[in-house]
Amino acid sequence: MNEGPTKPDFEAIYENYKQQGELQAVQEQTEAAADGLESIVAVRKNEDGDIIALKTSSGRELDYVSALNEAKSGNLAHVDVFHRYGRDILRSEPDGIKSNNLDQLPPF
Known about the structure:
Elements lengths: L9 H25 L5 E6 L5 E6 L4 E3 H9 L6 E6 L2 E6 L16
Antiparallel strand pairs: 1-2, 2-3, 4-5
């Protein structure tokens, strides 16, 4: 009896993709630390919930503009700078790990 072609398990394929991405993100974090790059470990927000300062893994406290400049220079790991709304914006790299998103980091 020929039942025709089997359909792919989309859920399983996507879950495998996410797991591989998480493993890759951990590996990249380890490599960045070995390269001496600082990462963002904490943030300070204003009353509106906007990030106004960031703390690095070495303990440096940077205002938002200084953090943007450090990220543009390649001195900060796991963050991207993109241009939107007429200005540069700092964000964590989209790696599938919600706990390391800038908005999720602890306050300092």
